[in-house]
Task: inverse folding
């Protein structure tokens, strides 16, 4: 559908950028029951948490892009992007902005937690 009505476009390739569980319904009339396999794709829950700190809260100034945390550390945070280092002006003067990702495929139970529980 377009603003001027229905149009047909012939193409060798089509890129479908919908989530897999939506794409299955779109593709089923075209490829049949095999489209339902898309419903099996797991989307792990990942929270993004922004944290602001005063620069003096760090023993040494932050320089770089962030850090990744191995699962062997027993921490649910996957990693942290030091947003204010990567994108100047992202935080007020004298502050640092950190973006942490929490959860993932090996931490499915986080999907049932509230935002307050995740941030605790």
Result:
């Amino acid at each position: 559908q377009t603003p001027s009505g229905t149009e047909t476009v012939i193409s060798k390739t089509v890129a479908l950028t919908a989530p897999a569980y939506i794409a299955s319904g779109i593709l089923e009339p075209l490829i049949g029951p095999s489209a339902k396999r898309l419903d099996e794709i797991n989307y792990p829950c990942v929270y993004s948490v922004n944290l602001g700190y005063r620069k003096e809260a760090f023993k040494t100034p932050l320089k770089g892009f962030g850090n990744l945390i191995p699962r062997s550390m027993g921490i649910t945070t996957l990693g942290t992007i030091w947003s204010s280092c990567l994108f100047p002006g992202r935080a007020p003067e004298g502050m640092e902005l950190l973006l942490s990702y929490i959860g993932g495929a090996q931490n499915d139970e986080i999907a049932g937690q509230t935002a307050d529980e995740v941030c605790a």
Notes: The helical segments are 20-31, 83-86, 115-119. The CA atoms of residues 52 and 97 lie 5 Å apart. The longest strand covers residues 46-54.
